[in-house]
Amino acid sequence: MAEPFPLEPSLWAATAAPAPETPPLDRSGQADVVIVGAGYCGLSTALHLAERGIRPVVLEAREVGFGGSGRNGGQVIPGLKFDPDDLVAKFGQERGARLARFAGSTADTVFGLIETHNLDVPHRRNGWIQGAHTPAGLDEVGRRAEQWARLGAPARALDKGETDRLLGTERYLGGWLDGRGGAVQPLSYARGLARAAQAAGATIHGNSPVTGLRRARDGWHVTTARGASLRAERVILCTNGYTGPLWPDLAESIIAANSFQVATAPLSDNLRRSILPEGHVSSDTRKLLLYFRLDHTGRLLLGGRGPFREPRGPADWAHLERIVGKLFPQLGAVTFDYRWCGRVAITRDFLPHLHEPEPGLFIDIGCQGRGVGLQSAMGRAIAEYVATGNAEALPVAPTPVARLPLHALHRVYVSAVIAWYRLNDGGMR
């Protein structure tokens, strides 16, 4: 696959804590479990397995957090696309309520890991605001706030006046506030998880792309591009939006869309006080949602969809820079210091997918744009399942890998849908 442009530096690469030492795998050996992918799910799984006395080895094609885990907006948002009542209607009372509880706890997992392991991660937990840009969106967020509040979450609806004040823009009709949400420096968080996993006994090898996966009588054989291989009883694939051809049909079971982001120069104190003055993070109800926050250096970050293809130059971020000016006219002629993007793994039903296509092989895929919390919590659940065999630990039941019909046409289809939404999504494009 083509590399994102420019590869470095993103805002996060420029401000992250130092990377841990993760030398390439240079000799063959054995492991209790081999984990492919050093993003949030792979690292969380490794950490929680190591804490149970299981010896995992993580193989990463590039470096810790290279993919979406180091290229996202750093918003820690609990929940899924579906609200609690939707999940109960879809899966039944017991399974639906269990999935809702899991989804509602994902932000707790992130901030709990940061505190427990004293991770060197700039973070803030003042809540997430979802702004509604249409009357239909306003009804939607009202229902969402009511459902989560009914389950005990610190959630409430916001009228237009309070939404305007807390966001620093008059572009929304209202919204809701979920006090469980927050923000992290996402690459620092990935690197912190890696250090914690190493301290617990996990081994991580960077620059060790996996090229072969074969099941034999003595277990799974995992081969890397350098020629070194590992044998293990179990293999866990955690590659999400950067999934390749390692397992049949897996890459074709998702749409790996790019999420584009821009970050301004550090804002003056006056401007900081006029935008997200209480430190919330925000995304909205648009089909092509916008998300924005201030980082720990006082820069305004805004993200959204861009071209489906890999970017070719700064012009591919120009629409986001225009949106910043429309949302926050008080910024004037602001300077943009950083532009970057990362892939999001989207499944057909907008739910995380787990697969166990053969004994000893487990697959997690489908971060759905909420990967910071979702994949951190998923790693813990996978580790419990691997360690105990308790299927109740998994938030969703494993299903067969299912290739999207006419997958090659989905890129064309999604590109057309993106263009349509831009024309009909509230006049911000």
What keywords describe this structure?
single chain; 429 residues; alpha+beta; FAD/NAD(P)-binding domain; eight-stranded mixed β-sheet; 12 helices; 24% strand; globular; disordered N terminus; FAD/NAD-bd_sf
Gap between N and C termini: 28 Å
Helix content: 25-40%
Pick out the low-confidence regions: 1-7, 420-425
Largest sheet: 8 strands, mixed
Named CATH architecture of one domain: 3-Layer(bba) Sandwich
DSSP helix count?
12
**Sheet/helix structural class:** alpha+beta
Query: Considering the protein shown, what is the CATH homologous superfamily of one domain?
Result: FAD/NAD(P)-binding domain
Backbone shape = globular
Q: How is the secondary structure organized here?
A:
Elements: H1 11-15, E1 29-36, H2 40-51, E2 56-59, E3 75-76, H3 84-91, H4 93-104, H5 106-116, E4 123-124, E5 128-132, H6 135-150, E6 155-158, H7 160-167, E7 174-178, E8 182-184, H8 186-200, E9 203-205, E10 210-216, E11 219-224, E12 229-237, E13 255-264, H9 269-274, E14 281-284, E15 291-294, E16 300-305, H10 318-327, E17 336-346, E18 353-358, E19 361-365, H11 371-388, H12 407-424
Parallel strand pairs: 1-2, 1-12, 2-9, 5-14, 12-19
Antiparallel strand pairs: 3-8, 4-8, 5-7, 6-7, 10-11, 11-12, 13-16, 13-17, 14-15, 15-16, 18-19
Helix pairs in contact: 2-8, 2-11, 3-4, 5-11
